[in-house]
């Protein structure tokens, strides 16, 4: 088991936003967190990343309490990609992506051939190799999203937690990044991703957790979770769902 979260609860200013959440990520899995705005999907991801501490429950990373992991060791196995991350320094794309290797380096250690190979691979995999010499602060929103994903992947983590990584991408890059996440979630690695596009969630994810008002209302395979009745209840819309090689979920009209 890569991550196991048990009975998580979390509050902001004495208001409960996550209530009794349990989740497990196994090697080889791509898990999607879905649900309407305000369902606390991003908050759950931050708990799993160790950015927030739950008021109740516990999280295990590779069988060890998440809180017991030193930051550098945790950074070697778990990567966090925030939603619409900012770039604060005028670094080149190549140097920014290289920061993803820091957990693998000791203080003052220079980048090795192994590090350079990992950086080159992620630049190519995220389709930003041609941007390597550009200042990261000159990138478009979609380019920035792919570069920040490259930085997260450069550390070759066993667990990737990605918050809406395709939100600012065009259609072709959405498909490319989802396929990349699908490919990463093979062998010993696993991915948890927050998504709003239900068709892509159905197409690429192994398991889905459907959240509403801070609780999991359904969990299982895409056909188990993405039903007309559940989408009507949670999203308040009537949907047309077609299963096949490429699933399609279309919102038709709001429920009166």
Keywords:
about 260 residues, alpha/beta, Rossmann fold, six-stranded mixed beta sheet, four-stranded antiparallel beta sheet, 9 helices
Please characterize this protein's 3D structure.
By secondary structure, the chain is an alpha/beta fold. It has one domain: P-loop containing nucleotide triphosphate hydrolases (Rossmann fold, 3-Layer(aba) Sandwich). Helices cover 32% and strands 29% of the residues. It contains nine helices and twelve strands. The chain has a six-stranded mixed β-sheet, sandwiched between helices. Strands 2-1-4-5 form a four-stranded antiparallel β-sheet, with helices on one face. The protein has a two-stranded antiparallel ribbon with strand order 11-12. Helix 4 runs antiparallel to helix 5. The model has no long low-confidence stretch (mean pLDDT 93).
Kindly estimate the percentage of residues that lie in beta strands according to DSSP: 25-35%
CATH superfamily: P-loop containing nucleotide triphosphate hydrolases
Stated plainly, the CATH topology is called Rossmann fold
Radius of gyration: 19 Å
Spatially, the strands of the biggest sheet line up as: 6-7-8-3-9-10
Output the helix-strand order.
EEEHEEHEHHHEHEHEEHHEE
Give the count of structural domains: 1
Poorly predicted residue ranges: none
Summarize the biggest pleated sheet: 6 strands, mixed
Q: Quick one: overall form?
A: globular
